[in-house]
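Write out this protein's structure.
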Amino acid sequence: MKEYTEKEILNKAEAYCSAVERCPSDVEAKLKAWGASPETVAAVMERLFKEKFLDTVRFCSAYVRDKYRFNQWGRVKIAQSLRMKGLASDEINAGLEAIDEDEYYGILKNLLKQKSKSIKAETDYERNAKLIRFAAGRGFTMQEIMRFVKTDF
């Protein structure tokens, strides 16, 4: 494996962070994979934050927006995923507040409508139970789910 100088590692990290929004824990893991010493990792991370290559609130907002729009995840699953990345609760909450409620509920409604077409159930009760289980698995709260399951979309 090639040995990198601190300057080379900083340049690689800046390029890595410039491509897309990155989570600090992901960047740290990448720095370690490149063979950076703990002191180098600390110095590079500090520099990346100072020069705004890394911003946890900005990362959270982008992550939340992408996950609910493209992966069609609910708040619970998104928050859990961000916690697993080692982010603080206030940063996660700031990201979750960026959710456009109308778009979010539209996604949930469409998910339930699509799933409803493919569900085989004897009764409405069984159908609703399957829809609730499906939406809960996607990370939507019971309150959000019940808003649409009670209606016929």
